[in-house]
Fold this sequence. Notes:
Largest sheet: 4 strands, mixed
Radius of gyration: 17 Å
Region (Disordered): 1-23
Strand order of the largest sheet: 1-2-6-5
Number of domains: 1
Structural class: alpha/beta
Distance between the termini: 30 Å
Pfam family, one: Zn_peptidase
Mean pLDDT: 81
Number of helices: 10
Shape: globular
Subcellular location: Membrane
Organism: Dyella dinghuensis
Membrane topology: Single-pass membrane protein
Amino acid sequence: MDWQKGERSQNVEVDSGGGGGGGGGFGGGRMGIGGLIILAILGWVFFKNPMALLNQDNTQPGAYAPSGQPAQVDPQQKDFVSAILGSTEKTWSDIFSGMGRTYVDPKLELFSGGVNTACGAASTAVGPFYCPGDQKVYLDLDFFRELDTRFHASGDFARAYVIAHEVGHHVQNQLGIFDKVAQMQRQGARMEGADGLSVRQELQADCFAGVWANRTQQRLQWLQPGDVESALNAASQIGDDTLQREARGTVVPDSFTHGTSAQRVKWFKTGFQSGDIQQCNTFSGAL
Length: 287
């Protein structure tokens, strides 16, 4: 992936170590369902209700306390993140403009160890996530190493897919999908499970990442042989069924939060092949 071709974003921030954000943990409904990899790393392994995992108070053990030191970020990695985020800004601004709407760019904050956000405190263990409360994507660059080692999903485009997926949640927020999901939940729709709202929202974010990949490739021609396969492999490696099978040797569909490996691949490919967000309606029909 010739990521150097990407437009650089001015919205990449580095955690100063001073804390920021605040709030009483990831609960209280402020996260929506979020569709975060925090749910994957915790929920997939421990088979717990993902919303219960988020309903924590900052005073409980494990909550992040600011170190007072700024995050240590490699300049080249920051430049990579800036290039990918910049490409998403251009792509989604164009798409929203075509719909007669204005796209508001998200911020992306790089952190180390942990971070305080408008959705509460999070440690490195939660992985990348999007907080609708402050419209920010949060990323500890150590997660890229985990992609290589734990998830066996190496390559720049696999890393770009992770960022694009989280930006996909920001797109959902901009389109009012978070609010609609919250309304469906209040009306009794189930969050977790193979057919639940969480899975449907996650798969839509995968589809939106595919749309970004399609539109950006048309504009920049920056993909190289094997890049698409690396993104599809990343999507496959972080499917609910794959991670549950690796962690416990069994698969529990009732605890799914993100979708199976096959579903994640399918919906990324749907977005990538079509380049059309109208093809990303994961809330209607079979997945």
